[in-house]
Every structure is written in structure tokens, then in C-alpha cells.
Amino acid sequence: MAESDSPSAAPAKDPAGPTEAQVLAFLEANPGFLDRNPDAILHLVMPGAGADRTVVDMRDFLVRRLQEELRDLRDGTDALIQTARVNMSIIKRTHQAVLAVLQGDERGNLGDAVARDLPLLLDVDVAVLAVEEGGILPARSVPLAVLPAGFVDEVAPRNRPIALRARARAEPRLFGAVAPQVASDALARLEPGNGHPPGLLALGSRRSGAFHEDQASDLLSFVARVVEHCVRQWTFGERTTA
Question: Is the four-CA dihedral 215, 218, 222, 225 of positive or negative sign?
Fold first, then answer.
């Protein structure tokens, strides 16, 4: 037996940490240490296979596999935490947008609240509330884009009330003078009923691909339903009974 392998040999000592003998004594006194601290395995180097390179060291294989699984688990946990934080931020901003819509409607300037507040709260470049032609618009709707009849069915039909377009068409009827700058948009159909014409809640971004059809649209739909409820209370000239 080599001198370095002898139990009586002086163990190597790290000036910045405990000696090997102290580590060994600690592990002997705490047999459940690795069970409570599995990440410690990531820092271990297992003994090699020896002189015979044809022999496969299964211990080393299993430990390395466990190390990889622990790293993947740690990375996955970090990604999950980050995703949860992003989702919470989006939900919070959505709630703030809904409050801005309700407050704007109470003040009688819903159209202005959508145009002014929603871009900041929803991280977009432009937000528009638009309705098709259908009677005299009430003062509380200003500023509001007026769309030609049939426009809403063209871009957001009833069977697909949310349209997320990675590459938007320049549409001055919807976004006005800033239409050439809108590279991607999200359109939510509004169906107030009670004789009101259909409309759109439109969000636009200068960044191409900011919206795409694989995105979840439940939060946008939620904001749109609140806007729709507010519009339902307006008076558009002569209304028919739903």
C-alpha cells in the first residue's frame, strides 16, 4: 500500500477549508448529509476505473448521470421561477389595464383611456378602440376610430374573435397616421349588442412578431370583454332592442 493510501498518512489540507480527515469525520457523523444536500454530488469526482481501461466503472457512470439530472432539474426550476414571475407581471399589468378602462368609462372618456393608458400598461406602441359606422357616436367615445361596415367581420369574424398577426398590414382605417409603423398587431372583436355596431380593440407594436397566433389570448380577451361591457352602455343614435 502506498504511503498516501495509508490511514496513518497525513491528509492533504486546504488552507481555506477543513482537512480531509475533518471532512471524513463529518460525513461519518452525518450519514444523511448527501440525502439532505444532493447538490453536493455535483462537486464530487469519483475514482477512475483503474489501470484496466476495458472495465466500465458503473459508479462513475451513475454519478455523472445523476449530476446531469440535478443540473437539468436546477435549470428547469430556475426557468419555471422566471416564467412564473413574468406571468405574474403580465397578469398584474392586465388588471391595471382593466382598472384604467373602467375609470376611463366612469369619467366619460373611454376612447381616450384606451389610447393613452393601454400602450403603457400592456407594453405596446398603440392601442385603439374602433367601431363600425352605425349611428351618431356619443361624446364619451372620443377619440375613436370609425370603421366601414363589414370591416370587423373581415379581420376578426365571429368564429375567430381574436386575431394575432405577426406581420400586420398597414391599415390606416384602424391605426390612422401611425399605421405604417405597426409591424404586428392584436385585434379583439367587440360585440356589444343591443343595437350597437361591432367594433375592435386593437393593439399595435413596431416590432414584427410581437404578436403571433400561437400566443395565449385569454388576457386580451378579458380586457376586450370589459371594454365591450363599457361600450354596451353607450347610446349610438337610434338603437334597436336586442
Answer: positive
Distance between CA atoms of 160 and 152, rounded to whole angstroms?
11
Q: Which residues pair with 187 in a beta bridge?
A: 163, 202
CB proximity list for 107: less than 8 A, separation 6 or greater: 113
Please name which of 219, 184, 187, 215 lies closest in space to residue 201, comparing C-alpha atoms. Answer: 187
Alpha-carbon span 201 to 85, nearest angstrom: 27
Full-model pTM: 0.62
pLDDT in tens, 136-173: 677 666 667 889 999 999 999 999 999 999 998 888 98
Architecture of domain 77-233: 2-Layer Sandwich (3.30)
Residue with cell 349611428: 135
Cα 138 from chain centroid? 36
Residue written as grid cell 406571468: 87
Q: 204 and 124 in contact (C-beta within 8 Å)?
A: yes
Sheet holding 126-132, edge to edge: 145-147, 126-132, 199-205, 184-190, 162-165
- Tell me how far CA of residue 186 lies from CA of 117, 200, 220, in angstroms: 16, 10, 8
**Spatial contact of 153 and 177, defined as CB atoms under 8 Å apart:** no
DSSP summary character for residue 197: P
Q: Find cell 448529509 and name the residue.
A: 33
Percent above pLDDT 70 for the chain: 78
Under 8 Å between Cβ of 97 and 121: yes
Kindly list the domain boundaries of the chain, sorted by start residue.
77-233
